[in-house]
């Protein structure tokens, strides 16, 4: 399905922000993949951008690109409101708390801080990174942190778009070195031949930038996935093409999930949330068909281009 073009309801912004000096867009998460992609897309479109970072040193490259830099913590309503002051719109997200001993409590605190900040800054519109499954009230594990953010921001009365992203293609970075060294692709997803929606973080950032440049009223829910669905077997085949040697997907038994995740630095509560989430994905409880009100969009990055980049970084 092609990405919808701007319609009369979702048209490129033409408001008070364009009178006189052009107001800028604020982008958080630029130290990660989706925020960086959103900021790049906006800069390439000629839009002024202010990036939000916790440490100004991490934004030197963005400053060289012409972006303004604001130092703020997404969990601190005061500093975040200052970073959002005078903005035309913002792309924000709830940073993952994989090492936290209370990831759900931390997510609720960040959601509250963001809500307070955007109201205090009188932000005209907001795009939020969310996840497929955020419409589900239970059985979604760590995705519940995104639901918390959605529900809190839905109550503030400002135009907000929730990007309900599919499974990140970049999640396979965790096992790219194993595929390169051993020809085996460990997978929490099962069965191995079942294709599910996946999306590249570059597409998430690009769609976030496109949404920011549109006007809308109320809430939007955007179900974002890549150009095709992929199974673990499909991903293994992409690694095989990138590496020039056979690669086979192998399902990691659920009994081994906890040990594997603890080696990656996840706390016990985060591991429990991850396990519930993956169960929901594998049994179909978490899927794109659960919220018919979400508007579908497809990205353009295929799994091969993402895997090729992961492979270059791993070898």
Set out the fold topology.
Elements: E1 11-12, E2 25-28, H1 33-44, E3 49-53, H2 60-64, E4 68-71, H3 77-84, E5 89-92, H4 103-120, E6 126-131, H5 144-154, E7 160-165, E8 167-168, H6 176-182, E9 184-187, E10 196-199, H7 201-212, E11 214-215, E12 219-225, E13 229-230, H8 232-243, E14 248-251, H9 257-263, H10 268-282, E15 295-298, H11 303-314
Parallel strand pairs: 2-3, 2-5, 3-4, 5-6, 6-7, 7-12, 8-10, 9-14, 12-15
Antiparallel strand pairs: 1-11, 10-13
Helix pairs in contact: 1-7, 3-4, 4-5, 8-11, 9-10
Order of helices and strands: EEHEHEHEHEHEEHEEHEEEHEHHEH
Number of helices: 11
Q: Give the class from helix and strand content and strand pairing.
A: alpha/beta
Q: Poorly predicted ranges (pLDDT <50, ≥5 residues)?
A: 1-21
- What is the strand content? 15-25%
User: Major sheet: order of its strands?
Assistant: 4-3-2-5-6-7-12-15
Number of strands: 15
Q: What is the straight-line distance between the termini?
A: 34 Å
Question: Share of helix among residues?
Answer: 25-40%
What is the general shape? globular
Mean pLDDT: 91
Q: How large, in whole angstroms, is the Cα Rg? A: 19 Å
Largest sheet: 8 strands, parallel
């Amino acid at each position: 399905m092609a990405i919808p073009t701007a319609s009369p309801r979702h048209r490129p912004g033409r408001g008070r922000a364009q009178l006189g000096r052009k107001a800028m867009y604020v982008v958080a998460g630029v130290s990660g993949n989706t925020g960086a992609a959103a900021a790049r897309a906006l800069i390439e479109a000629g839009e002024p951008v202010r990036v939000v970072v916790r440490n100004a040193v991490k934004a030197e490259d963005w400053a060289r690109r012409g972006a303004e830099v604001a130092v703020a913590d997404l969990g601190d309503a005061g500093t975040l409101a200052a970073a959002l002051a005078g903005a035309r719109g913002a792309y924000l997200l709830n940073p993952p708390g994989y090492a936290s001993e209370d990831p759900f409590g931390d997510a609720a605190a960040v959601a509250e801080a963001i809500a307070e900040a955007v109201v205090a800054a009188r932000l005209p519109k907001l795009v939020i990174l969310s996840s497929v499954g955020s419409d589900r009230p239970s059985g979604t594990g760590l995705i519940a942190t995104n639901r918390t953010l959605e529900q809190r921001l839905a109550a503030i009365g400002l135009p907000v778009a929730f990007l309900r992203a599919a499974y990140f293609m970049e999640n396979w970075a965790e096992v790219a070195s194993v595929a390169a060294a051993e020809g085996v692709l460990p997978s929490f997803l099962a069965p191995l031949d079942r294709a599910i929606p996946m999306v590249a973080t570059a597409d998430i950032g690009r769609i976030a930038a496109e949404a920011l440049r549109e006007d809308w009223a109320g809430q939007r829910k955007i179900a974002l996935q890549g150009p095709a669905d992929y199974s673990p077997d499909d991903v293994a085949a992409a690694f095989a093409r990138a590496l020039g040697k056979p690669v086979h997907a192998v399902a990691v038994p659920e009994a081994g999930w906890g040990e594997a995740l603890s080696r990656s630095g996840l706390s016990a509560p985060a591991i429990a949330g991850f396990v519930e989430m993956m169960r929901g994905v594998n049994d179909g409880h978490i899927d794109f068909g659960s919220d018919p009100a979400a508007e579908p969009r497809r990205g353009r990055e295929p799994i091969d281009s993402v895997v090729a980049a992961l492979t270059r970084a791993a070898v």
